[in-house]
Write a structure and sequence with these properties.
3-stranded mixed beta sheet; 15 helices; alpha/beta
Length: 458
Amino acid sequence: MIHFPENFLWGSSTSGPQSEGRLAGDKKGDNTWDYWFSIAPEKFHNQVGPKDTSTFYTNFEKDLDLLVQTGHTAFRTSIQWSRLIPDGDGEVNPLAVDFYRKVFQGVKDRGIELLVNLYHFDLPMVLEEQGGWVKRETVLAYERYAQLCFELFDDLVDRWITFNEPIVPVECGYFYQYHYPAVIDAEAGVQVAYHTQLASSLAVKACHQVNPEKKIGIVLNLTPAYPRSQHPADVKAARIAELFQAKSFLDPSVKGSYPEELVEILQKHDLLPDYEEGDLQLIKEHTVDYLGVNYYQPLRVAAPKFQAHPESPFFPEYYYDHYEMPGRKMNPHRGWEIYERGVHDIAKNIQRDYGNIEWILTENGMGVEGEEKFRQDGFIQDDYRIDFVKGHLKELHKAIQEGANCKGYLIWTFIDCWSWLNSYKNRYGLIELDLDTQERIIKKSGYWFKKLSQENGF
C-alpha cells in the first residue's frame, strides 16, 4: 500500500470555458474562442464550439454531487472573465456573480477545497480587438478584474490562481497558430509573455491586499526537457528549451527575476519586451505562495541539425530540434508519450532549485479517442486510465518521501470536457458525458478514484 501524507488533496481540474457552455440570456460576452469559432468553425473538431461545452452552467448542482461520488476533496475551476465582465473592463454581469457564488458555495457545502483560476486562455474579445495582451491596457484591465474577483468571492475560495499555463497562449497564439490570433510574430509573443507575468504579479499583490492570509499561485506546465544524449550540444539544447518552455514563467513567478541566459537570448534576437520603470521591482516583490504544476508528457530535444534561414521568423526551435526517443512508451489512443518519471524530476527540480515551494499537481491525465469502444456492462472500463494515474502517483509518492513539498493531486478532468480545437475528440474524464443526452455516467476510474481518495493511497 502506498500512503500519501495526511490531508493530501484528491480531486480534479476543469475550466469555465471548457465546461460551462452558454445559455440564451446569460449575458456572457464573447471571448477569443467564441469569436474564432464564429469565423472559422472548420478549425474545431466536428465543428463543436465553445457554446456546446459540458453544460456545467445549467447542471452544476448535479455535477457537484458527482464530485462527492468520485471522492473529491479538492476541485479547481476558473472564472470566465467574459462572463463576469462581458466587455472585459466595464459593467459587471450580475447573473455571473450569482452563478459563481452558487457554484463556489456548493463546492464548500460539500466539504471540498476550492481552487479558483482567474484566466484559462479566454481573453474577452473586446480587449483582443484593442490589441490584447500585446497592449499594457490589458494588464491593467486584468488587474481590475482580479481585484473584483477577490472582493466578490474571496470568502468562498480556498486558493487563488492567477493564470493557467501562460506559456501556451504565447506559443500557440504567436508562434504555432493553434490559438487566436494565430499569427507568427515572435516580438508580439515575447511582449504577451511579459505582460502576462506582470499581470500575474499585480494579481498576487491585489490578493494579498484584500486578504494577506490567502494563498495565491500560478499553474505552469513544467514539462521537463530531456536531451537526446549527454553530448554537450544536446545538453545545451535541452537547457535552452527549458528556458523558453518552463523558466520564462517559473523563475519570475517564484524567484521574482528572469533567467539571465533567457534575457541574453532575447537580446541577441532583438526581442526584449517594452517595460516601464518599477515593473521588475514589482515582479520581484510579489511572488506566488505556491505552484500548480501540470504534467502530461516529456519534451525531448536534440541539438539542431541545421542553421535557421536568416530571413526566417524566430522560433524557439532556433536552438533545438524535437526528438522522438526510440522505444518510448506511448498512449496509443492519443499519440502522446507516457513518461511517469517526469513527475519525480519536476518535484526534485522544485525542491532543489526553487526553495521547495509548496505545490500541487494540478493536471495529469490520459486522453483517449473513441473511448466508447471500452464500454461494458453500461459504463466505460478504463483500466488504462487507472494504470496511468497509478504510474504517476508512484513517482510522486517517491518524491514526497524524499522531501518534495507536494500537497495534492488533481486529475484532468472530472467530466469529459470540451477542449480548444479538439472539442470532444479526446476524452479525459472520470465521468463520461453523452453529448446527445447530456447524461453523466461514472467510469470505472471514477469509482477507483473515490477509493483512492478514501484510503489516501492505493
